[in-house]
UniProtKB/TrEMBL annotation:
Pfam families: RskA_C
Record's protein name: Anti-sigma-K factor rskA
Residue span(s) of domain Anti-sigma K factor RskA C-terminal: 78-199
UniProt entry tagged with the keyword Transcription regulation: yes
Organism field: Nocardioides lianchengensis
GO cellular component terms given for this protein: plasma membrane
């Protein structure tokens, strides 16, 4: 073996049993190589982890330092550290862009008006419209000939606009124009009779207020 062993080969388990044993003896006596091995092991582990995160697996020859005089042995370590920094920055940038593409929804809590059911409304903005997703908890079965209906409500005038029925599990999703959503200020869930009357039954079970300016 050379005066200073191939530490990366040791790290990657590429040495023969004889060379590995000889390298171990060298490390016992060489503090500088022990320090280099610790730095290289840390950089190699971080680079491998960053490669998996970004979907890029570096080739083996990209990680192996080229033979060089003793004074330049830290060059590959600095290169590996720089690669880790670039990978980490790229991952952070991707996360920021991804978050910008999918903004977090605004959440309004559905409080009981009658009964003990609860729920929430998630409003996710889009291009000129908002996706409204209603989820309820402990909402009793509507019963035969009845159903739950979601409405937009203007608390100041009691003007209401029917959005549609909630599903059997007490959930629903609607796409609503932003201008229309802004002309109301609350979501109402009512229990309706299947009698052909499109008007609100006046039996509200859940209600949530929202602010489109917030």
């Amino acid at each position: 073996m050379s005066e200073h062993p191939d530490l990366l080969a040791l790290l990657r388990a590429e040495l023969s049993n004889h060379d590995a044993a000889t390298t171990g003896d060298h490390l016992d006596a060489c503090a500088q190589c022990r320090e280099d091995l610790a730095e290289l092991a840390t950089a190699h582990a971080m680079l491998a982890r960053s490669g998996r995160t970004l979907g890029v697996v570096p080739a083996a020859d990209e990680l192996r330092p080229a033979p060089a005089p003793r004074r330049s042995r830290r060059g590959p370590l600095l290169l590996a550290a720089a690669a880790v920094a670039v990978a980490a920055t790229a991952g952070t940038t991707y996360g920021v862009l991804h978050d910008d593409e999918e903004p977090a929804p605004a959440v309004a809590v559905l409080d009981p008006v009658e009964g003990t059911a609860t729920g929430r409304v998630e409003m996710t903005p889009g291009d000129g419209g908002t996706r409204m997703t209603i989820t309820t908890h402990d909402l009793p079965a509507a019963g035969s000939g009845r159903f739950y209906q979601a409405w937009l409500l203007d608390p100041a005038t009691n003007k209401m606009l029917a959005l549609g029925q909630l599903g059997p599990r007490g959930t629903a999703s609607f796409e609503i124009d932003d201008a229309l959503l802004g002309s109301y200020g609350a979501i109402d869930v009512s229990l309706e009779d299947d009698d052909g009357d499109p008007q609100h039954s006046v039996t509200s079970v859940l209600r949530a207020s929202y602010d489109t300016d917030g």
